[in-house]
Amino acid sequence: MRILLVEDDAAIVAALSNLLESEGYEVASSSRQDEAVGLLESSSYDLALLDVSLEQGSGFAVCAAAREKAPAMPVMFLTASDDEYSTVAGLDMGAIDYIAKPFRARELLARINAALRRTQGTAAQLVLGDVEIDPVSATVRKRGSEIVLSALEYRLLLLFAQHAGSLVSRERMRNALWDSAGEYVSDNAINVYIKRLRERIEDDPSDPKIIVTVRGLGYKAGN
After folding, report:
1. What's the CA gap between 170 and 138, in Å, rounded?
2. On the chain, which terminus has fewer CB atoms closer than 10 Å, C or N?
């Protein structure tokens, strides 16, 4: 999933980008109103995280543009402007949350995850072997017990579930999970991600049954 971060404090941008990317999110950032609106026009995002006071312009204007260009995308404010007027204005514009600085990183991440879960729609449950994936709540269970995955591990599992029975090449994984960020991920790195996912979902990761290797071509998951 892709997050648009609009913030003019470089230190906060760096810290939030590292936090979100460690969870598997792709982050595009801007410190200016006009640039942020341009990003909304040129690409799609799953969530926008906005400051009110920007280097040039206002986060409120970016929110208005987001509501026009991507009305289904959740918008959250993360700002030092925590007076009642600003809070009410942001919520009245359609923001789903308004968080004051300073903030707690893990709490912010939990709120972002919750917002994205609420906007994932009503997709049907997916099954791979004895692993069940609920795209609505973004939860994964194996024989009824919940499995905790990182955002990247979840997206990778979802990709396999959506292409169950079909070959999933490393190139397809790159295009689906990383290509839009302009980032190249090596085959070895992909192998590591697969290994970590197998450790979460397989009974015996050394003898995988859910996600199997198709030597020289990629991987394949079956029901």
Report:
1. 23
2. C
Buried (b) or exposed (e) across 179-200, using 16+ Cβ within 10 A?
eeeeeebeeeebeebbeebbeb
- Domain segments of the chain as ranges: 2-118, 126-221
> Residue written as tokens 């460690």?
22
Q: Which residues pair with 141 in a beta bridge?
A: 132, 146
The domain made up of 126-221 is a member of CATH 2.50.20.10:
no
pLDDT confidence of residue 122: 43
Residues 46 and 14: their CA atoms lie apart, in Å, by: 20
pLDDT < 50 positions in the chain: 122, 180-181
Model pLDDT, residue 101: 84
Report residue 191 CA to chain centroid gap: 21
Task: Name the CATH superfamily, with its identifier, for domain 2-118.
Answer: Response regulator (3.40.50.2300)
- Report pTM: 0.55
**Residue of 8, 5, 4, 11 whose CA lies nearest to 55:** 8
Cα–Cα distance, 197 to 200 (Å, whole number): 5
